[in-house]
């Protein structure tokens, strides 16, 4: 994805904020991404991180939700956080 000219990656791969650094403020996490000025100045459409190490830890999904979308409530009772997150995203206004 980062080969696309309108996608800017995080300053480093595998930040692992939601697994190892979640006690740090969100500003620490955000500091790993392009500034708004550089993002807009380059006509970027997207940024993100790659932390495949999150995959074996189901608690990471709930940690992401609590930090970034505290008002979100899972709509499934099966304990599948990924499925619930996808349902939440689909329910957002278009």
Quick overview:
By secondary structure, this protein is mainly alpha-helical. Helix content is 38%, strand content 6%. It has a two-stranded parallel sheet.
Describe the protein's topology.
Blueprint: E1 7-9, H1 17-20, H2 26-30, H3 36-41, E2 46-48, H4 59-68, H5 81-91
Parallel strand pairs: 1-2
Largest sheet: 2 strands, parallel
Strand order in the sheet with the most strands: 1-2
* Structural class by secondary-structure content: mainly alpha
Q: What is the number of E strands?
A: 2
Overall pLDDT metric: 80
Q: What Rg do the Cα atoms give?
A: 15 Å
Q: How does this structure look, described?
A:
The structure is a single chain. The chain is mainly α and 94 residues long. Helix content is 38%, strand content 6%. Strands 1-2 form a two-stranded parallel ribbon. The longest helix has 11 residues, at 81-91. The radius of gyration is 15 Å and the shape is globular. It starts with 6 loop residues before the first strand and ends with a helix. 4% of the residues are buried. The mean pLDDT is 80.
List keywords for this structure.
94 residues; mainly alpha; two-stranded parallel sheet; 6% strand; globular
């Amino acid at each position: 994805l980062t080969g696309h000219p309108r996608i800017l990656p995080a300053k480093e791969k595998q930040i692992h904020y939601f697994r190892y650094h979640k006690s740090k403020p969100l500003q620490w996490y955000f500091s790993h991404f392009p500034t708004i000025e550089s993002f807009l100045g380059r006509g970027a459409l997207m940024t993100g991180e790659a932390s495949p190490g999150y995959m074996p830890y189901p608690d990471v999904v709930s940690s992401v939700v609590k930090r970034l979308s505290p008002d979100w409530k899972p709509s499934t009772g099966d304990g599948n956080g990924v499925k619930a997150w996808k349902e939440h995203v689909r329910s957002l206004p278009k």
